Amino acid sequence: MGAFFLFIARMGGKYTVPLSLRNFSHQDIIIIMNELYHKLLIIRTPGIGPIKYADLIRRFGDATTAAGAISPNDAVRDGVRREMDRAAALNIHYICDDDVRYPPRLRELKNHPPILTVRGNVDVLRRPMVAMVGTRHASAAGMTFMANMAEQFSSHGITVASGMAMGTDTAAHRGALRSSNDGATVAVLAGGVDYIWPIENESLYDDIMARGAIISEMPVGYVPLATNFIQRNRWVAGIADQLILGEADPKSGSVTTARFAIEMNRPVFAVPGHPSDPRSMGPNGLIRDGVAKICINIDNFFDKKTHQNTKKEKKFDAENVILDAIGTIPVTESVLADIVQKSISEIKRELVVLELQGLVRNTGAGYVRM
Predict the structure, then answer these.
(1) Mean pLDDT of the chain
(2) Selection from 189, 34, 17 nearest residue 88 by Cα
(3) Are 294 and 270 in contact (CB under 8 A)?
(4) Are residues 287 and 362 in the same domain?
(5) Range(s) of the domain holding residue 30
(6) Is residue 369 very low, low, confident or very high in pLDDT (cuts 50, 70, 90)?
(7) Could you give the angle at the alpha carbon of 136 between the alpha carbons of 359 and 94, nearest 5°?
(8) Count of domains in the chain?
(9) Distance CA 205, CA 236 (A)
(10) FRET label pair with 192: which of 115, 209, 248, 356, CA 20 to 30 Å apart?
(11) Rounded to whole angstroms, how far apart are CA atoms 247 and 117?
């Protein structure tokens, strides 16, 4: 029998059956609860990772027999019981890799997490998905570009996945949540799904939980270590159909995430930037090496006519003189002021609007048309 979402709340020594299981017989509920408990006993036992977990299940035929064979000690058993109680109290779902709602692209990986914990809308994990990553120290223009791209993906029904870090990750999540359609975003965490990091993103965490999903392979209540973020980056790449890299240092975790995606044979796109900006070295390097395609606008991913028909934002008048004066070569605000005979303050105001609409981008050396 496949795994189900389990919300087991201990009350007075008895278990309250969740609504998701109310239509099952008493015997089936016992089987389902027992299966999850023994799967957690296996994966939470020190020294057992995804590959060894899969080998044990395959060798012994089921989780109960496999858990009995490894004989987890009392500390592991008590830890799993406490974890399940906390998960129940916080409405946290467990999804095993034999559940139909387990992310399909993640399941393809040989060493995928056998059990995920999830807060929010589990159903979004089955949708087509794009990963969007980049530096925590992104420029305003870089974050605007990624947010606009994320909003368009979301409006097309594609879930945006990222790591909920500051900077680029936050822009991607926020952009996806701006979509007026049934758009969604997924945050992959390095700690337990109930551990909010960074704490500055607490409100974002709540918004994602309401419109999307927060997932982790780590136990509920787990405080992440530095090494956990590398594995988190692997799952950000693994859960998606393709990946977009924004501004990033060549040695950053974001570039590592992109390289994980390349190893997994996922299409990787990189947003080019000015050569003198260190934040452009990561994406520019992947483009130079031929392992990433150039990403300059949403038309790289959708038919242009379809994209134009689905855009919801207001457009500037086609005769807008500032927009007409901007091309593919970066042009500064002062040059634009000379060309269109307007003041710098007027130029700045209109550029802000154009940038928010995704019509222009500030490369650092000047503005270019999208």
Answers:
(1) 87
(2) 17
(3) yes
(4) no
(5) 9-120
(6) confident
(7) 105
(8) 3
(9) 16
(10) 248
(11) 30
Two tokens, residue 232: 């988190």
Q: For 327-352, how does the pLDDT look when each residue is reduced to its tens digit (9 = 90+)?
A: 777 788 888 887 788 888 888 888 88
Model pLDDT for residues 257-316, shown as the tens digit of each residue:
999 999 999 999 999 999 999 999 999 999 999 999 999 988 888 765 545 544 444 344
- Cβ–Cβ under 8 Å, residues 317 and 303: no
- The per-residue DSSP string of 170-217 comes to HHHHHHHHH-SSS--EEEE-SS-TT--SSGGGHHHHHHHHHHSEEEES
| pTM, full prediction | 0.77
DSSP state, residue 14: E
- Which of these three, 61, 96, 120, is where a domain ends? 120
Spatial neighbors of 14 by CB under 8 A, at least 6 apart, are: none
In this structure, the answer to whether residues 293 and 352 fall within a common structural domain is no
Residue 309 lies in a domain: no
Residues 237 and 300 in one domain: yes
d(CA 338, CA 75): 73
Residue 1 lies in a domain: no
**Residue 112: what residue type?**
H
Q: Is residue 281 part of a domain?
A: yes
CATH of the domain at 50: 3.40.50.450
